[in-house]
Amino acid sequence: MAKLKPFTMPKWGIEMSEGTVAEWMVAENAPFTKGTVLTLIETDKITNEVEAEADGRFVKLIAKPGDTVQVGALLAVLSDGGEASQAEIDALIAGFVQADTSFTGDDATPAPAPAPTPPPPPVPAAPPIPDGVAISPAARAQAQAAGVDVSAIHGSGRGGRITAQDVDQAARPDTAPKLVGSFPSSPSDGPYASPMARRLSVLHDVALDGLSGTGPKGRIRKADVLAAVDARTPVPSASPAPAPSAAPVPAPVASGDVDVLPMSSMRRTIARRLTEAKQIIPHFYVRRRVRADRLLALRSAAQGKRPSVNDYLVKACGLALMEVPAVNVQVHGHEIHRFGRADIAVAVATEKGLVTPIVTGAEGRSVADISVVMAALAQRARAGQLKAEEFTGGSFSLSNLGGFGVEQFDAIINPPQGAILAVGTARPEPIDDDGAIRIVPVLHLSLSCDHRAIDGADGGRFMAALANLLEHPELL
Amino acid sequence: MAVMNIREAITRTLAAEMERDESIIVLGEDVVGGAGTAGGQEAIGGIWGTTPGLFAKFGPDRVIDTPISESAIVGAAAGAALAGKRPVAELMFADFVGVSLDQLWNQMGKFRYMFGGKTRCPAVVRLIYGAGMNAAAQHSQSVYAMMTAMPGLKTVLPTTPADAKGLLTEALRGDDPVMFFEHKALYGVKGEVPDGDHRQRFGEARMVREGGDVTIVTCGRMVSFSEKACDKLNADGIGVDLIDLRTTSPLDEEAILDSVEQTGRLVVVDESPPRCSLASDIASIVAAKAFSSLKAPPQMVTGPHAPIPFARELERAWVPSPGKIENAVRQALAYR
Amino acid sequence: MQMSRDELIGAYRRMATIRQFEMRLHDEIKSGEIAGFTHLYCGQEAAAVGVCDHLDDDDYIVSTHRGHGHCIAKGCDVKGMMKEIYGRRDGLCKGRGGSMHIADLSKGMLGANGIVGAGAPQAVGAALSAKLDRKGKVAIAFSGDGACNQGTTFEAMNMAVVLKVPAIFVFENNHYSEHTGVDYAVGTNRDIASRAEAFGMKAWRANGCDYFDTYSTMRELLDHVRGGGGPAAIELDTERFYGHFEGDPQRYRGPGELDRLWAERDCLKNFRARVGEGGLLDLAELDRVDAEVSQLIDEATSEARAAPPPDPAHVAEDVYVEY
């Protein structure tokens, strides 16, 4: 009986991965002797003859001339001499398994993620840490203090040792990352510039060609582009202030007839709280003008649904509060409660009166995200569908009457918060731009502070941080 | 623009530069092949097929087959460079750096400094590196971190045909010793290559993808793996700044820090064991200089602290994969 | 020199095992199932067996990237080797090393090596250990005509002489270092033994395609070394029947070169002719050995194919003895 063997695509050289059968030089079932040229195989580098290593015949030619196949693929069925039955041939073909000859390591299947650390039980039901658990001293103390069950933690240290960071992570609730998403790719050619400089040049429409770089070998850096943005003569019409036209102007009260309206319970609450606030809280005010040309340009360049100016303000306040935590406070009797994240109450006018839904963790959200969240909150506020937790608490308030054409105003603090920012509309105004007088849209900001908790310097620092962010909105 | 693969880009650049500058010589094991055999010269043109045709064109004085003597190959390149030539020495496998290390480490990389800035040593050493061929522990390593660590050596890792041309041209026109790393698995990568003179500056990273959530810093074959991970991540709305370093020495620190200052999250992908690696180097730079921007600990995707194994299943487990990179990005985002 | 009938059959069996092992790999590699680089020893069988037949498990050898023959000649388990080359969990080195890194310390086989020239200094160290143990053991470095050009080999030879250790440098000159000819690459007019002599040791030359010549010359050499004569060297003139690695297109070969080598320089054919001519052995007996070896290789191959792969979870184990 004939002995059958697979005849496969050979591998020549170290890195051949596929080859093309150029031609079969022997016919099916024609006997050949050792040394006969059987086929011509082409690769991207060479064409080679494959010689018979022993006498035999092909009982089945499978690959057709012109077929390009992987190294190791079945090209034909080789017999050591005699003919073979169809069943034998079929059995060999069916049993043939082509080996994987590709470069290894290129699999896109995610490796199994380390088991997520389940959130620990809420309160100090800290199970004792058994002896022999590898854990750092600080982690041990932290786990006991915070009531974290370390048995559920997969330690990230050597040999699975639990670190303080592991305990700290396990003690925190899950967070969903707030995503910025992809950017369009910046051009890679043109002048010598850092990647961030290229990105900013597109964002601000600054030509890199004209810039001289201050980096090594004249490389244009981020700072060079930002300087060029600063120095650019603004074109007022290019960034118009939001049109105030839609704002309803309050009608003057007609003389004679007076409508007497009983206060709704909501109105009464507002009245009581603000009276208390104005009577009890020693307000002081910090005011600052902020150029808004870049902010408005950035906004008009935004893709998709544009965030409102207010959305940028929420983000900017969030970041500024992180920089100046002294302003991110609530006042409770003789205690000042300072917060690690910026939960910003945003005043929304509704038919029933003022409501202040809260954008939580504003510092960590993208502007686009704030925009979505804010739109949903405002819509539900107007429909009276806010849940209590959506408008109580908060570490700071923002009130924006810019939409009504208001230039500037001062707001009353919303207790127990320590401060509120009042924002007017952006109006073209002259500014001193490094010696040059320019006319650009300018925002008037007024920060009301509770002097019991916040000093003038804190307010000033906060306004400086806020102004810096709004004037360099790419930081948002 | 012509479309070619990295192997062709290297061959053509060598030929073009040798044409332009007759001080360039090529030497190494089997760069021609067949010396002293019945089959005759040009038997192979480099086992990676990167030097075919050079011998026919430039002759035995400039295209030189050597005995298997890596220390002498690299040392001769160092000496020839001191004496006015521009040698291109090939180490068939980057792992053979071990045999020739003194000539690289104590000699080539230190001449200029030791001799008070009076010498130039414009040698290019081509090192063929990387895992993926089941070539086991002594033929698969990526030793670029070691070369990066040596002051005086420049370390270059092209990932596209255009960069292969641009970086090799820059290496051959510059006056410093350059460790030119070619990944085995990348030779077949095709792409457009600019015609004519094309130089790619050292120390200028390439932004492969742009996005605001996570920064991936990597080099070599791991760039394409990271791109695959980015495809999956982008689909979930996760934007990635993917930085191909192109050269690890000099290092484009600015590109890294600018990006991390924006994203706050760093993932370094490095085809080597984790200790004293490129990954640990980049992570330490970011931790030291962008600490205030970090929202999560830097993640390092590397092989384990083990030599590279032979069996397919083991090598696959050793090498960072697109899946592992994707996971690391998600880990960085999940940090709370 | 005398050899028993059993010794003769044993020598033939070891050479035939190497031959069939390598020819089977040459075939199997075409399927692509065997990963990595494989360098076959086919053609050089008489060298490995002619040297190792004088050794026992306590003598040391260090090998090269072309190491399968040395392993088999030194007594490594053929099935374990096949599994290793297939990258299997139960391979001699757990699938971590593969073809280029097979070792079995229990057989005095200190390891094949992927770095040309890395072995010779290690043999000096093993010989130093043997010298200190005073049990008459020796250490052998197999090197090729490629490795003879590495500085490590030169340093090792000199140091062996200086330390007067029982190290033996076996140079298997198969006339090709990778794709380059020995006429070009070995400056001493393709003569490697003279280099060893220049370092101050006694050197021999033998026909590495002739088991009897290799075996008897090695006997003389070992008498010298074991008698306290210090290190020694032997250059074996031999042939590589396949390429540098499997897949090598071998364009450096002359026309008809391989046919001539198989016809004239086949050590197994030579062995059969010699024992047949002298009526030392019944050739039918060697045929039986061939059949037994063939069955062993069949089993080794099918068992290796079916063997389980390594567990990726163990990728970072065995880096250290103690962590």
Automatic annotation (TrEMBL), chain A:
<dbReference type="InterPro" id="IPR036625">
    <property type="entry name" value="E3-bd_dom_sf"/>
</dbReference>
<dbReference type="Pfam" id="PF00364">
    <property type="entry name" value="Biotin_lipoyl"/>
</dbReference>
<dbReference type="Pfam" id="PF00198">
    <property type="entry name" value="2-oxoacid_dh"/>
</dbReference>
<protein>
    <recommendedName>
        <fullName>Dihydrolipoamide acetyltransferase component of pyruvate dehydrogenase complex</fullName>
        <ecNumber>2.3.1.-</ecNumber>
    </recommendedName>
</protein>
<dbReference type="InterPro" id="IPR003016">
    <property type="entry name" value="2-oxoA_DH_lipoyl-BS"/>
</dbReference>
<dbReference type="InterPro" id="IPR000089">
    <property type="entry name" value="Biotin_lipoyl"/>
</dbReference>
<keyword id="KW-0012">Acyltransferase</keyword>
<dbReference type="InterPro" id="IPR004167">
    <property type="entry name" value="PSBD"/>
</dbReference>
<keyword id="KW-0808">Transferase</keyword>
<dbReference type="InterPro" id="IPR045257">
    <property type="entry name" value="E2/Pdx1"/>
</dbReference>
<feature type="domain" description="Peripheral subunit-binding (PSBD)">
    <location>
        <begin position="134"/>
        <end position="171"/>
    </location>
</feature>
<feature type="domain" description="Lipoyl-binding">
    <location>
        <begin position="4"/>
        <end position="79"/>
    </location>
</feature>
<dbReference type="InterPro" id="IPR011053">
    <property type="entry name" value="Single_hybrid_motif"/>
</dbReference>
<feature type="region of interest" description="Disordered">
    <location>
        <begin position="168"/>
        <end position="195"/>
    </location>
</feature>
<dbReference type="Pfam" id="PF02817">
    <property type="entry name" value="E3_binding"/>
</dbReference>
<comment type="similarity">
    <text>Belongs to the 2-oxoacid dehydrogenase family.</text>
</comment>
<feature type="domain" description="Peripheral subunit-binding (PSBD)">
    <location>
        <begin position="192"/>
        <end position="229"/>
    </location>
</feature>
<dbReference type="InterPro" id="IPR001078">
    <property type="entry name" value="2-oxoacid_DH_actylTfrase"/>
</dbReference>
<dbReference type="GO" id="GO:0004742">
    <property type="term" value="F:dihydrolipoyllysine-residue acetyltransferase activity"/>
</dbReference>
<feature type="region of interest" description="Disordered">
    <location>
        <begin position="103"/>
        <end position="125"/>
    </location>
</feature>
<keyword id="KW-0450">Lipoyl</keyword>
<feature type="compositionally biased region" description="Pro residues">
    <location>
        <begin position="111"/>
        <end position="125"/>
    </location>
</feature>
From TrEMBL, chain B:
<feature type="domain" description="Transketolase-like pyrimidine-binding">
    <location>
        <begin position="4"/>
        <end position="189"/>
    </location>
</feature>
<dbReference type="Pfam" id="PF02779">
    <property type="entry name" value="Transket_pyr"/>
</dbReference>
<dbReference type="InterPro" id="IPR033248">
    <property type="entry name" value="Transketolase_C"/>
</dbReference>
<dbReference type="Pfam" id="PF02780">
    <property type="entry name" value="Transketolase_C"/>
</dbReference>
<dbReference type="InterPro" id="IPR009014">
    <property type="entry name" value="Transketo_C/PFOR_II"/>
</dbReference>
<dbReference type="InterPro" id="IPR005475">
    <property type="entry name" value="Transketolase-like_Pyr-bd"/>
</dbReference>
<dbReference type="InterPro" id="IPR029061">
    <property type="entry name" value="THDP-binding"/>
</dbReference>
<keyword id="KW-0670">Pyruvate</keyword>
<protein>
    <submittedName>
        <fullName>Pyruvate dehydrogenase E1 component beta subunit</fullName>
        <ecNumber>1.2.4.1</ecNumber>
    </submittedName>
</protein>
<dbReference type="GO" id="GO:0004739">
    <property type="term" value="F:pyruvate dehydrogenase (acetyl-transferring) activity"/>
</dbReference>
<keyword id="KW-0560">Oxidoreductase</keyword>
